[in-house]
Design a protein that fits this description.
alpha/beta; six-stranded mixed sheet
Amino acid sequence: MSLKAGIVGLPNVGKSTLFNAITQAGAEAANYPFCTIEPNVGVVEVPDERLGQLAAIVHPQRIIPTTFEFVDIAGLVAGASKGEGLGNKFLAHIREVDAIVHVVRCFEDADVTHVSGKVEPLADIETIDIELIFADMDTVTRRLDRSRKQIKSGDPKAREEVAGLEKVLHGLEEGIPVRRQTLATEDLALLRDLHLLTAKPVLYAANVLETEAALGSTPLVDQVRHLAAQEGAEVILISAKVESELAELDAEDKSAFLADLGLSSSGLDRLIQAAYRLLGLITYFTAGAPEVRAWTIRRGTRAPQAAAVIHTDFERGFIRAETVGCDDLVHAGSMANAREAGKLRLEGKEYVVQDGDVMHFRFNV
C-alpha cells in the first residue's frame, strides 16, 4: 500500500530541513523563499520495535520494515491559488497526496527570515488554509457549471449533485475547509473524484527551537494546539534542527543524544505514528526463515484484502489465515508454543485484521 503525506507550509518554516532529516534525501534547504520548486519525494522506513522481537524468535535472513512516503512541497504564499509564487503548480502537487503535514513555525530566530516579517503561527496557518480554500472553490465551481448544464439535458442525478456541490461551495465561501464541514455520506461520495485540497486530513507539525524540543509545549505551540482542537487535528511538537542532527548519528549515538535532550523518541517516530493514526493505518506481519516483514493496511481491512497487499493471488485463492498476535507470540517464545497455548487461530474471509497480527495465508489458485 503506497500512501504519502505532503509537507506544506509557508517558506522558511523548516519544511525542507525537516524533510532532509526524516528521509536523509538531501533536498535543497536555504534561507530564501522558493528554494523548493519540484516536490522532493522521500520513502522512509517505519520504525517498529516488534520487527526485532519477531526476528529474535524466527531468526530470518532479513528484516523488511514497511515504508511511508513524504513529499516536500514548496512554500506557499498569499495568492498561490491565483498563481503567485508558482502557486498553481504547488497546489497540484498537494492534490496528489493522501494527507497533509502542515509545518508551522513556532520559534523566534532573527537569523531565519520569515516571509511576512514576523512569527505568527495562526496567521501562517490561515494563509495556507485560505489558498487551499480558494483553489477548492475554483474546482467546485467548475464542476457545478457542468452539473447545471446536465440538469437542462435531463440527467436525473445532476440535480442531486448540484445540491450537494452548492452546499460544499457555501461552506468554502464561509471559510470552512471541507474536512470541517458536516456532510452526508452521499455528498462526500460525489466529492471523491474532485480530490479537494481541504478535504484531506491534516496533521500540524509545530517546529520549535532545539532547546524547546523536550518542553512539550510553548506559548506559540499552544496557539496551534488550540486551533487544531477545533477540527480534531493532532499537533506534533518537533525540532527540525534536532532531527537534522539525529540524521547524522548512528543508533547508539541517537539514543544518547535524545537522552541528553530529555526526549524518549525522535520527531520522526512521532510524526510517522501520527500520520498512521491520521490515515487510519495499521501494521501486520509475516514471519519466517526467509524474512520478517511488516505490511501496511487500513484499519478495518478483512483478511483476504490484507493478503492482497502481498500478492493479488493470495486474495483470489484465499482459504484461511493462520493468525497470532505479536505480543502473544513474543510471550510464547515460538510459533509451536503459541499453538500449544491456543494462541494461534485459523481465521476466515470475514476476519478483520488487527494491528500487530502475525499472519500466514493459505491459498489455492
